[in-house]
Amino acid sequence: MKLFIFLIIFLYISSVLGQDKPEITERILPEIKPIGTTGRLNCTVINKLDNYVEWVHNEKSLTQDETIVVDPKFNQIVNGYPKYQVFHRKIGQKDSFMLVVNHLEPKDKGIYRCQIWVRNDQDSGRLVSKDGKMVVVFPPQILQMDTSSTMTVKEKENVLLKCGASGNPKPNITWVRVNGSPLPDGRLRARNNTLLINSIDRNDRGVYRCLADNNVRPPAQFDITLLVAFSPVAVAVQSSYGQVENRMYDVIIECRVAGFPEPELKWHKVTSATTWKQLKNDDKHTINILLNHANSLGQNERWFQIVIRSVTANDYGDYICEGVNNHGSGSTKIQLFATSECQGPLCEEEQRPEDRKGSASITKLSHLPLMLSLIIGYYLIKL
Ligand SMILES: *[C@@H]1O[C@H](CO)[C@@H](O)[C@H](O)[C@H]1NC(C)=O
Ligand SMILES: *[C@@H]1O[C@H](CO)[C@@H](O)[C@H](O)[C@H]1NC(C)=O
Ligand SMILES: *[C@@H]1O[C@H](CO)[C@@H](O)[C@H](O)[C@H]1NC(C)=O
């Protein structure tokens, strides 16, 4: 009996509370969409009766039931569709109002509230509401900040490379070197908006790439070419060269000079303990700058040579290979000394080095008169 009365009371209460009271029955699922696409949010209501179901965003009422109520200036046509649309669907007891936000932009993100003002006999009304979240994702875009695409820094300086990117979610920034070599600190990649290079070295020059990725295609990247200025460094290929005098033999003296910006290269002859004389192209000397030498040169390095023709006693002594740029100069001393026999690769042929190409057949031909005279001489003796 007690149970029966209890049941009656329970049924009564539940009918009073449940009846005629609009409720939003389901959670409004968050909508995560890329920029430019269409976002949809559903509000499903039971016992709607004659109450209005409203969608509200940023304090602006967008819709009431199937009517767009937002100021038309906020509901212009973009790509053929109005910014906001609402679709009503009735499924049994339930009414579903789907808010459609067309051509999503970053400013469309945020909370959209579905609300119902429930009219009520006793007081002015009761607000029933649920929130839905709109997330507008967009791919990274590099923000061109104060970092330009080419930077020249001095060796030993500290360098801070910066890279900023917009995007939602906030992109991760990663630094790599484009040639695949490790970053100056030894890591292959570094996750940070900035890349600090302490006491930069000339070997740190190259292209640094900032990659911005937030898993929304496509990722973005920005390349910074880092040039490292340094005072020239000259290195002798051989510290001394020998050549015999007065036999019409040439000698080629060579050095390598690195430097950035591109140094001016000079050959000098040491004329006294304190003086040098700069050598120029003339009958005696030919100066060559090679940008490539059997792939043995480093970046910003040149192969620098001087040909001294028909070495005579005057030519012996010290030569200076020098590079000069606006950061300083570097030089190395190379000696030319006397020998009793011909030295070096130019001895085979008593010819100028620039004629060496294709010299094999010429050399053979040059022996022809000698051989002919030997043969003729032989026969003359026999006769
Ligand atoms: C909203 O509801 C409609 C049907 O009522 C359904 O087709 C659609 O997929 C739902 N959309 C979302 C975002 O839940
Ligand atoms: C990012 O770089 C800044 C500046 O060099 C540094 O202070 C910070 O610790 C770095 N963050 C990480 C996570 O390495
Ligand atoms: C950034 O990287 C971390 C660690 O790899 C990852 O968990 C996170 O999802 C990334 N963030 C974005 C926006 O891609």
Strand content: over 45%
First CA to last CA: what distance?
160 Å
Low-confidence stretches: 7-16, 355-366
Into how many domains do the coordinates divide? 3
Name the ligand types. Answer: 2-acetamido-2-deoxy-beta-D-glucopyranose
Main sheet: strands, sense, barrel:
8 strands, mixed
Reading off the top of the CATH hierarchy, the class of the largest domain is best stated as: Mainly Beta
CATH architecture of the largest domain: Sandwich
- The H/E string reads HEEEEEEEEEEEEEEEEEEEEEEEEEEEEH
Which superfamily, in CATH terms, is the homologous superfamily of the largest domain?
Immunoglobulins
Q: State mean pLDDT (0 to 100 scale).
A: 87
Question: What level of helicity do the residues show?
Answer: 10-25%
Shape: rod-shaped
Radius of gyration, taken over Cα atoms and rounded to an integer in Å: 43 Å
CATH topology of the largest domain: Immunoglobulin-like
> Helix segment count?
2
Domain Ig-like: 22-116, 140-225, 232-337
Protein name: Ig-like domain-containing protein
Signal peptide: 1-18
Organism: Dimorphilus gyrociliatus
Note down, in words, how this protein is organized.
- The protein is mainly β and 383 residues long.
- It has three domains: 20-137, Immunoglobulin-like; 144-229, Immunoglobulin-like (Sandwich), CATH 2.60.40; 237-342, Immunoglobulins (Immunoglobulin-like), CATH 2.60.40.
- Helix content is 11%, strand content 48%.
- It has two helices and 28 strands.
- A hairpin with a 2-residue loop joins β5 and β6.
- The longest helix is centred in the C-terminal third of the chain and has 24 residues, at 359-382.
- It is rod-shaped and about 135 Å long.
- The model is unreliable at 7-16 and 355-366 (pLDDT under 50).
- The protein binds 2-acetamido-2-deoxy-beta-D-glucopyranose (3 copies).
